[in-house]
């Protein structure tokens, strides 16, 4: 069964980062440590660069191997950070969706993490993604992030 978890954010920032970026990085790190290959799909290249910066800024013992889509690497990294116009085609286990809409490639995933931000416009977009996934038959759950 395809499963999507929507994380309800209660604040706009966590530390120095946007709450979505901070939580997405933590979720990616946890998923990687449990053996999953992760795609973080951003809305824009700027957001992807922010995710990349946040992952590099983690303490050394919290390091998460990752790369931006299109970067040449000898071996595929477990976490790829992409944006709308740029995505590698390697198979991934988990999609962390930061796009405003449901991505067209959603059917290649069985598990998705998405976010319901505090800001009203973004919250409305999240509701639409939730409705679309429900219509597609995904099992949906929500989890509050304090």
From TrEMBL:
GO terms for molecular function: DNA binding; DNA-directed DNA polymerase activity. Keywords: Nucleotidyltransferase, Transferase. One of its GO terms (biological process) is positive regulation of DNA-templated DNA replication initiation. Its EC number is 2.7.7.7. Pfam families: DNA_pol3_chi. It comes from the Bacteria. PANTHER family: DNA POLYMERASE III SUBUNIT CHI. This is DNA polymerase III subunit chi. The gene is holC.
């Amino acid at each position: 069964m395809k499963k999507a978890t929507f994380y309800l954010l209660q604040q706009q920032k966590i530390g120095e980062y946007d709450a979505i970026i901070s939580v997405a990085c933590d979720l990616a790190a946890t998923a990687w440590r449990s053996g999953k290959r992760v795609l973080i799909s951003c809305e824009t290249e700027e957001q992807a660069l922010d995710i990349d910066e946040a992952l590099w800024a983690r303490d050394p013992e919290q390091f998460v191997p990752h790369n931006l889509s299109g970067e040449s690497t000898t071996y595929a990294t477990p976490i790829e950070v992409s944006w709308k116009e740029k995505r590698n085609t390697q198979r991934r286990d988990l999609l962390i969706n930061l796009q405003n809409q449901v991505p067209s490639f959603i059917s290649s995933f069985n598990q998705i993490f998405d976010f319901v931000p505090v800001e009203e416009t973004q919250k409305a977009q999240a509701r639409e993604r939730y409705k679309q996934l429900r219509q597609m038959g995904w099992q949906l759950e929500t989890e509050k992030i304090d």
